[in-house]
Amino acid sequence: MKRDIYPHLETWKTSSRRKPLIINGARQVGKTHALKYFGNTSYEKVAYFNFEKEEKLSQYFESTLDPKKLLQTLAIHAEVDIDPQKTLLIFDEVQECPKALNSLKYFCEEANEYHVAAAGSLLGVKMAQEKGFPVGKVNFLHMYPLTFFEFLSALGHEKTRTFLEEYSAYEPLPNPMHDKLIALLKLYFFIGGMPEAVSEYTKSENLNTVREVQLEILDAYEKDFAKHAPPNEIMKITTVWKEIHRQLAKENKKFIFAAIRKSARGRDYEEAIQWLLDAGLIHKSDLVKSPKFPLSAYASSNIFKIFLSDVGLLGAQSSLSPQVVIDGDILFTEFKGALTENYIAQELTATCQKKLYYWVSEGIAEVDFLIEEGHGIFPLEVKAGTSQKKKSLVTYAKKYAPSKLLRTSPMNLKHDGDIYNIPLYFISRLEKLEQEK
Predict the structure, then answer these.
(1) C-alpha to C-alpha distance for 380 and 367, rounded to whole angstroms
(2) Which of 118, 117, 121, 146 shows the shortest CA–CA distance to 1?
(3) Which of 369, 389, 392 is nearest to 379 (CA)?
């Protein structure tokens, strides 16, 4: 399965400024598989240690954090020679051993000739809590569910992916190609990008079995709440988590706490939302009333939308029937386009823009996303259907006169006056298309 993280791993390996690596990301996005594959294809040997499966491993770190001593005992434990440059040392589920996490500082300072990579579930949560975390002593890579392009590779459409990645003309794709991609995108909306769900579909092509896998993942996430979250926050985290698909089903997708219960206030749920963000389970899009550069300086901290990290899990959480994949284009407009907007949020986060923002004009118009490119800010409107209405973009253009207006929809590549339509399946190429047009 071709993952976009592999070139970044190769760059890390050869970097003159290489430090121990931490791969962060939600549970079951493929961190372990990626590291093992990288180790087996780019190194002579792999020394793999899983702190969740082997609880006794933590004892090696109780008496010392000295890299030389640790390397000696770990090599004996794994029955493998750990050689500088030639062996990839993997600390998996490292959140179960905070001292192993802290040892990365000393690997950086005293044994940087060894290649050490760590991964684990809820590492973002642990990093927010750990006082001894080796700030500045590690490199980071964040891993997400499979993007749509990665999904194409997983399903054997490598030539289609390469065609899209190399496509440079801002003109419509051939209709048969466009129709094929829309059909594959509908499939992605249901399956999503969780590797186990994608793998199950490649084996069985059974969407009901895929749904079973997704429900198991959702159940595992909720068990993590009970196991790893602060006891006084578990109920709030669970409440927010189960509320997301209902809030996205509204016409106005702003997260409204009063919808949970009338007395609910945002400040009561700040820690719960931050926990879900740190766990990599959600994306948060902040309201910007005045789109000026940088957007982060003008974003509202208490008005926002919340999206799930994976569109397939959103469909599972919403009990979306597999039948919608078969029934025409209903999937794009299902519960007021929530799947489509969630998909764009996760694609932008994984490929273009790590922080999300949207714009509203006093109840008159709303632009779903703001794209920060260089020193420019451009509106991106998401259309779940083929409607060419452009009220929100026109309203935004009158107020701020951006040099370009962007719309993404199931329609083909199209230039309509000053509005550029990018097909939904092409959104990860947004920045490249903007440079080439």
Answers:
(1) 6
(2) 146
(3) 369
Residue type, 140: F
**pLDDT tens sequence across 376-400:** 899 999 998 777 678 899 999 999 9
- The secondary structure of 119-172 as a DSSP string is E-TTHHHHHHH-TT--TTSSEEEE--SPPHHHHHHHTT-HHHHHHHHH---SSP
Segment holding 45, helix H or strand E: strand 45-50
Interval 318-362: pLDDT, tens? 999 888 876 766 777 777 789 999 999 999 999 987 799 999 997
Q: Quick one: 156 exposed, middle or buried, by C-beta within 10 A (0-12, 13-18, 19+)?
A: exposed
Q: Which DSSP letter does residue 174 get?
A: P
pLDDT at 437 over 60: no
**Domains (ranges, CATH) in the chain?**
5-142 (3.40.50.300), 148-436 (no CATH)
* 414 pLDDT more than 70: yes
370 Cβ partners below 8 Å, 6+ apart?
Answer: 288, 291, 295, 357, 358, 359, 377, 378, 379, 380
Q: Residue 222: what pLDDT?
A: 97
pTM of the model: 0.95
Q: Are 271 and 236 in contact (CB under 8 A)?
A: yes
User: Per DSSP, what are the bridge partners of residue 365?
Assistant: 361
Which residues make Cβ contacts (< 8 Å) with residue 81, sequence separation at least 6?
45, 75, 87
Mean pLDDT on 25-52:
97
Give the span between the Cα atoms of 363 and 179, in whole angstroms: 35
